[in-house]
Design brief:
The complex is a heterodimer of chains A (252) and B (252). Chain A is mainly alpha-helical. Chain A is built from eleven helices and no strands. The chains are: A mainly alpha (252), B alpha/beta (252).
Chain lengths: 252, 252
């Protein structure tokens, strides 16, 4: 029931549809761009300018870069989604009301997390649908598209949990969005920083970056390491969020 | 049976409630009176479980607030000064949301819950608004909906924070009827600036001044204003503002 409360909070506002449409239109634009670029290569091949060995596969030229782009768009989508939920909550002072009901603090955090993740998953499913269709038509294994979709959901879950932990440290929704976006940017570009730093610290930074794990998923390779990384990271931040919310509830 | 023992609440360095103790019996309808900032809302919010008191102990029907907060919260129904409606719910959805949350404790079946919702919607004359969004209702209707949320699980203790705020005389009369129809074994605590309402509804009065409980008496024993002033050292300004003068005058 808490879950449906959070779902209603998002889907009954015009912001949801504006943000959702913006995300899907941007994704569609990139899908179109990557597909066009691939078709140009095919035309070059058909005209004899390229040999068969130089013609990249749909998976390398459309599916993988498209999934990476959608993964990058999540750096913006997730904080905006949380911004909307946070402002709505502050406006209605819903949390203070919920604190008077017989619910556990962790339920409040997990229900919000699940509601936000479901919302993002629906958007991602629509966004990734062309990849499934393309995989089917081009006889590319569907498992590659499925692994990519799972990768996007896992990275969304991690980004959401980081944001939820932040909501209890930064009360202002706008500041939270900025800090959240910056943090996700830093995580996204951690491999580049790791490369600059080098050495053991570089290796450590690389291991901490979600990009390293999603890259393999977007290539269609799913392993236990990736799942462990995302699940441990997400649960860790969700527990921090629950702990902070509990402190707020007790000592407001 | 509600026992409040030496509760104190600090907001930073500011003391909002100081060493307050009282004991309320089943059937008590208590008027909580005091100037703005006296600590009325702090007391009600703390009793409802919105936050923990800095020190002190509350036991309701044998359940200590700190030992079992979830079971404790179940015993209370709270209507805040400004109604909060989590999510974008209609009146019916709000009632179902509240009812499902409490059902996890009282174990009511879906059928029993629905029949109770219908009963209360009828009783509070909200049936015709069942599909209206809570945030789009008039203030009086919002107050009634918030009251529905507070009484739906038939709490042992009902906390009403300024329930007459913003109501016209007819709505006030309706609200008075709703409160007076409460079960006999229920403890009701209502804060109000309107002494006439306290006088007509309550059998007991608590007067707070700057976070201190200065009067805790049966309303009938407040007939002699001089007695009140002598025993409880009420300042002239407070007794005038809460209407004790007019009360004593009328009773004489």
């Amino acid at each position: 029931m808490l879950f449906w409360k959070d779902i209603s909070l998002w889907w009954r506002t015009s912001t949801a549809y504006i943000c959702g449409s913006a995300f899907l239109l941007t994704s569609a634009y990139f899908f179109h761009a990557y597909s066009n670029s691939y078709l140009q290569r095919v035309e070059q091949y058909q005209a004899g300018f390229l040999s068969e060995s130089d013609l990249p596969s749909i998976r390398d030229m459309v599916i993988e870069p498209y999934l990476e782009t959608v993964g990058f768009l999540l750096v913006f989508l997730v904080p905006i989604l949380l911004l909307r939920m946070q402002s709505e909550e502050q406006e209605t002072r819903a949390t203070t009301f919920l604190f008077t009901l017989p619910v556990r603090t962790s339920e409040l955090v997990y229900s919000r997390f699940c509601a936000a993740l479901l919302t993002i998953s629906v958007l991602l499913l629509i966004g990734v649908l062309p990849v499934f269709v393309l995989s089917f038509l081009s006889s590319t294994p569907l498992s590659a598209a499925a692994a990519g979709f799972i990768g996007l959901i896992l990275v969304s879950a991690l980004y959401l949990s980081i944001g939820l932990a932040g909501t209890h440290l930064i009360p202002s929704p706008v500041s939270l969005t900025l800090v959240h976006c910056t943090t996700l940017f830093m995580l996204y570009f951690l491999p580049a920083l790791a490369y600059q730093v080098g050495g053991n610290i570089g290796v450590l930074l690389e291991l901490l970056s979600p990009v390293m794990y999603t890259e393999m998923l977007f290539k269609g390779y799913c392993s236990l390491n990736q799942l462990v990384y995302f699940l441990v990271g997400t649960l860790c931040f969700l527990n921090i969020a629950s702990f902070l919310k509990h402190k707020i509830r007790e000592w407001a | 049976m509600l026992s409040i023992d030496s509760i104190t609440k600090y907001y930073g360095d500011v003391i909002a409630l100081s060493e307050m103790s009282t004991s309320l019996q089943a059937g008590d309808v208590v008027g909580l009176v005091g100037l703005n900032g006296a600590g009325k809302s702090t007391l009600l919010k703390g009793l409802a479980g919105e936050f923990a008191f800095s020190q002190g102990k509350i036991v309701c029907h044998g359940i200590c607030r700190d030992a079992d907060p979830r079971a404790y919260r179940y015993l209370f129904g709270y209507q805040p000064e400004r109604p909060f409606f989590p999510g974008s719910f209609t009146v019916l959805e709000f009632a179902q949301f509240i009812s499902r949350i409490y059902a996890r404790v009282d174990g009511l079946s879906a059928r029993e819950r629905n029949s109770r919702i219908e009963e209360y919607l009828d009783r509070l004359r909200l049936s015709s608004f069942r599909n209206a969004f809570c945030h789009e209702l008039s203030q009086g209707e919002q107050q009634r909906t918030a009251f529905l949320g507070a009484v739906l699980h038939e709490p042992k203790v009902l906390l009403l924070d300024e329930p007459f705020n913003g109501l016209d005389p007819r709505q006030m009369m309706e609200f008075r009827d709703m409160i007076s129809q409460s079960p006999r074994e229920r403890i009701t605590i209502l804060s109000s600036h309107l002494m006439s309402e306290v006088q007509s509804l309550c059998n007991r009065i608590l007067i707070l001044d700057k976070g201190e409980l200065v009067v805790d008496q049966e309303l009938s024993s407040l007939e002699d204003r001089q007695l009140v002033e002598d025993h409880f050292a009420l300042s002239e300004s407070i007794s005038e503002k809460v209407g004790l003068k007019s009360l004593s005058g009328r009773n004489r």
